[in-house]
Amino acid sequence: MKAIVFDASVGKYIRTLVLGKISKRFFYNRLSCIQLKDIPEPGLPSENYVKIKTTYAGICGSDLNLIFLHDSPSTSPFASFPFVIGHENLGVIIEKGKNVSEFEIGERVIVDPVLDCDARELPRCPSCQEEEFSTCLNITEGKLKPGTIMGTCSSTGGSWGEYFIAHKSQVIKVPDSVKDEEAILVDPLASALHPVMRNFPGDSDKVLVYGAGIIGLLVIWSLRKLGCKADITAVAKYDFQADLAMEFGANRVVRSSEDYLEELAKVCDAKIFKPMIGEKVLLGGFDKVFDCVGSKKTIRDGMWLTKQRGSYILVGLASVVKDLDLTPIWFKELNVRGAYCYSTENINDCRISTYQLALNLIQQFGIPYDKLITHYFDINEYQRAIEVASSKGSEKSIKVVFKFL
């Protein structure tokens, strides 16, 4: 089968880092850690697994972090190389084990990518017993090789390949009323819902959503669809992002610019001060800040923009951040929260997987896929797809997907 494979041998990793300083194309050309290859189809590890033929696969910001080697090497023990990239998925079951009675051949499905104790066919660890699957303690054990999610595990394959496998506990049927283009957005919506559900604002709160890429936009969208009446400010880099942020329910959008801190301070009644050396700092701020970027600037400014004893939620996948001043954490007694993947959420006194909740919201409200999915590519065009996905301003890209014929 054709698949885009990531192989981070030490030699390739160092070579790609060096050549990438010359041109970003060295991160995804034939000399890089990623290659389009013909590889064997993955086999079923047990009779509790299914094989899925890929229909759509999305390019996630975490995939771009991987390709451009922005991820910290500290996470390398929790992956198995080489692996097929891709976890945003939609496909059709083409094979199933004898113990799979819940699904049939030919059914259209999505797969929750988290490779927890259930997927590894192990007794549940303390995290999985609490249904906190994204923090599973057995991500290197069991039936599968190491990998936190599909798309980092050499056993499962990934959605950037023609076929991948999944344990029956991961599989969710897609209702006939949900279009393919809507279903492929379940994963980014779930990624937005997880921090939203764990940090839901009160109606009187002032909320800052930092970043108006796909996750930031869907944080705003999901807050409004779930009935949040808080005052929401979004920070957007580009005009097309700002327009969508307003359409999705932001009360206002502030463009990231030289004086944007002053504009944001007015919104949340914060006071700005200039230290003897360094950048401006703030007293006061927003009740909750969802940082959907995770850069040095957004982390630094995002924490200072959070009010005393407020909540700063890191949604963007930050890695190694050099020379980051952590003063606001203790000075303002901030609640600093992280959000990784998806898990199980509480809603209306019920427990539901984040993936299923995302699918339910799409089924209930629909989702403006025609505005969110901006580009479609064949897998053979992967270099161009990566170029477009990583050039948001010039390409006006939001969600870029591979469409398998």
UniProtKB/TrEMBL annotation:
Alphabetical list of PANTHER family matching this protein: L-THREONINE 3-DEHYDROGENASE (PTHR43401)
Domain of life: Bacteria
The organism of origin for this protein: Caldicellulosiruptor naganoensis
InterPro entries, alphabetized: ADH-like_C, ADH-like_N, GroES-like_sf, NAD(P)-bd_dom_sf, Zn_alcohol_dh
Residues in Alcohol dehydrogenase-like C-terminal domain copies: 215-347
Pfam families attached to this UniProt entry: ADH_N, ADH_zinc_N
Keyword Oxidoreductase in annotation: yes
Signal peptide extent: none
Keyword list, A-Z: Oxidoreductase
Designated name of the protein: Zinc-binding dehydrogenase
Domain annotation Alcohol dehydrogenase-like N-terminal: ranges: 47-176
